[in-house]
Design a protein that fits this description.
The chain is α/β, with parallel strands linked by helices. The protein contains 15 helices and 23 strands. The protein has helices spanning 49-58, 82-87, 150-154, 157-161, 201-208, 214-217, 225-234, 266-278, 298-313, 460-463, 465-468, 489-506, 514-523, 565-569, 576-580; strands at residues 3-5, 39-43, 61-67, 72-77, 92-97, 100-102, 171-176, 196-197, 250-255, 263-265, 283-286, 289-292, 317-321, 329-334, 337-343, 368-370, 378-383, 423-426, 451-455, 476-478, 481-486, 536-537, 556-557. A hairpin with a 2-residue loop joins strand 20 (476-478) and strand 21 (481-486).
């Protein structure tokens, strides 16, 4: 059994979450996943690319994705016996069905809302930061930091800007839903020449006809998630809106996920990683997450391992989301590999349950996390702004103790944790930082509870009223440019990647040295937080404020047993000011 979700985990798990309900999209394989039956063929070491292609052709296969640099090809075939035929070739080591990463479908019950936009400065050469960064409120909502982009303050980014805003030689790749390189926040830093779409539209539509849509086969971001990630890392200083953490670095986008079908195959994503590293990426951000069964999906896991090793051998550091299931991910040794992230086999391996779903649907115990849990990948957990006073409508049995109100930098209610976590960074959380369906009225993201970044104006997040609503991600547009407030480990990873980019600009000797970079970030991390967030509570079966009874348990947080510091934050919160010194 294998699970995958886009740790495009903007909300509790995947793409979104309106007022009255939550989404955890427990995506499981079905007969409709991988509708083309794309097959991965791994070859024995020493097999040449020509020999690989010849073996596939002889068995009636057509290559969709060339991963020959790591000894594999993705293939489709009209030969019903293709797999058995190609296995007969002595150079073939293993054959398996390519794996699908499913994007969780958002609940559409939210109602659209409108509000005024904050005032913009005039586009120009204003000094850092851009005008929205330090605004005190948005649509009448403020937050304890007193500025909209509280996350930069928590990472000590303004102190780093006195030393560096980044450097064009630092190249960052966003492997995601694509990148809107024409967005005002990205245009100055976007490398369109090396950016690419790895979805093999031509081969798949030629072989099987329509299925992938225009949104998938274009070079742009038709969803919005990748653009948000890229802007948080490398949004330019231009006097417009607000810049990213490292506003002078180069950013590339690799579109690996289908908007039409809501996900992508492992080989598409791995192809994006390889292309990024061949394009001399110093950093890769992967706000994507999924899980492999250690027995049934060992081949798939090893493909991720090979891709990570390929990139690290070229000096690329990889940052990835810890995941939004709020499960414990342990650092283990598996199949001879040290540093593997494996979900705990006990009760902390059960994800936060939405009332009405079963324990089985949320059972991640023993699964291997990818890509964040792959050895050598930097796993980043997510923190919130602060615990806001809880509304009276929330049952005392499921809300924070009064003594916790006001506490800052808490592990978010959705973030996974455990010994595999390397670092923490702000990911934002809904105002009350309790599971979404317990929040009740006023449990918002905008105004500095979530994190602010750019979106694609014609992308899914801004076009779907349930996602664009001010009850969810508050998409708004100014001068044709879209922005929104998001939450998730999808947001914490690019925050950490942005700090890494500033660090490489200030310490060019660390370019090409992923281990040295991580050591620097760990050694300089901030450690003055005290975590009060607990795991999911199997014993608490109180009704949810907005979603009714919880007969299963695991719907609410356990505040009696806070997750220890190292498991919540790894080495601590990334600290840009200290890292660039």
């Amino acid at each position: 059994m294998r699970r995958f979700l886009l740790a495009s985990a903007i909300a509790v798990a995947a793409i979104g979450m309106p007022a009255a309900a939550t989404t955890v999209a427990q995506a499981q394989p079905t007969s409709s996943t991988n509708p083309w039956n794309v097959t991965v063929v791994r070859f024995a070491p020493g097999t040449t690319r020509d020999q690989m292609y010849a073996a596939v052709k002889a068995s009636g296969g057509v290559v969709t994705t060339d991963l020959s640099k790591i000894g594999a090809l993705a293939v489709v075939s009209t030969n019903g016996a293709f797999r058995s035929d190609v296995k007969g070739n002595s150079k073939v080591k293993s054959v398996w069905l390519d794996k699908w990463i499913s994007v969780g479908e958002p609940d559409s019950s939210g109602a659209a809302a409108t509000t005024g936009s904050p005032q913009l400065g005039s586009p120009g050469t204003d000094p850092v930061p851009d005008p929205w960064h330090n605004l005190s409120s948005f649509a009448g909502e403020t937050n304890p930091e007193g500025i909209l982009q509280w996350d930069d303050n928590r990472m000590n980014v303004p102190a780093a800007w006195a030393t560096t805003l980044g450097d064009r030689t630092v190249r960052v790749a966003v492997v995601d839903s694509g990148l809107d390189g024409s967005h005002k926040e990205l245009a100055a830093n976007y490398d369109g020449q090396d950016s690419a779409n790895t979805i093999p539209c031509n081969v798949l539509t030629r072989q099987f006809g329509p299925g992938l849509g225009e949104k998938d086969c274009s070079s742009g971001d038709t969803e919005g998630h990748g653009t948000w990630v890229g802007s948080r890392i490398a949004g330019a200083v231009n006097g417009f809106a607000s810049n990213g953490v490292a506003p002078n670095v180069t950013v590339m986008g690799f579109k690996t996920l289908s908007t039409t079908l809501g996900g992508g195959l492992t080989t598409w994503i791995v192809d994006g990683m390889i292309r990024a590293c061949d394009a001399d990426a110093d950093l890769i951000n992967m706000s994507i997450g999924g899980y492999d069964d250690p027995v049934l999906n060992a081949d798939d896991y090893m493909l991720w391992v090979d891709a990570a090793n390929y990139c690290r051998a070229r000096g690329t550091a990889i940052f990835a989301s810890a995941g939004n299931e709020h499960v414990r991910v342990n650092r283990t040794t598996w199949n001879g590999l040290a540093g593997v992230g494996q979900v705990d086999s006990g009760p902390e391996g059960i994800a936060d349950i939405i009332p009405g779903t079963s324990v089985a649907e949320n059972d991640y115990r023993g699964l291997l996390e990818v890509p964040a849990g792959v050895p050598g990948v930097v796993m980043v957990s997510a923190t919130n702004n602060a615990i806001a006073p809880q509304p009276a409508s929330v049952d005392p049995a499921i809300k924070w103790p009064a003594s916790a109100v006001g506490a800052r930098d808490q592990l978010t209610y959705y973030s996974s944790y455990g010994s595999r976590v390397d670092l923490a960074a702000p990911g934002g959380a809904r105002k009350f930082n309790i599971p979404r369906y317990d929040g009740g009225a006023g449990d918002i993201l905008y105004g500095g509870w979530g994190t602010l970044g750019a979106l694609t104006a014609n992308g899914e997040i801004c076009q779907d009223p349930s996602l664009a609503s001010f009850l969810t991600f508050a998409c708004f547009k100014v001068n044709g440019a879209a922005f929104g407030w998001l939450q998730g480990t999808s947001m914490s990873s690019p925050n950490a990647t942005g700090v890494a980019a500033l660090t490489l600009a200030a310490h060019p000797e660390l370019q090409g040295d992923p281990n040295g970079l991580l050591a620097k970030l760990r050694a300089t991390a901030r450690t003055n937080m005290v975590n009060l967030t607990g795991p999911n509570d199997p014993a608490n079966k109180a009704d949810s404020t907005t979603s009714g009874p919880c007969p299963t348990g695991w719907c609410h947080l356990d505040f009696r047993h806070p997750i220890r510091f190292a498991d919540a934050y790894g080495a601590g919160m990334v600290n840009a000011g200290a890292a660039v010194r």
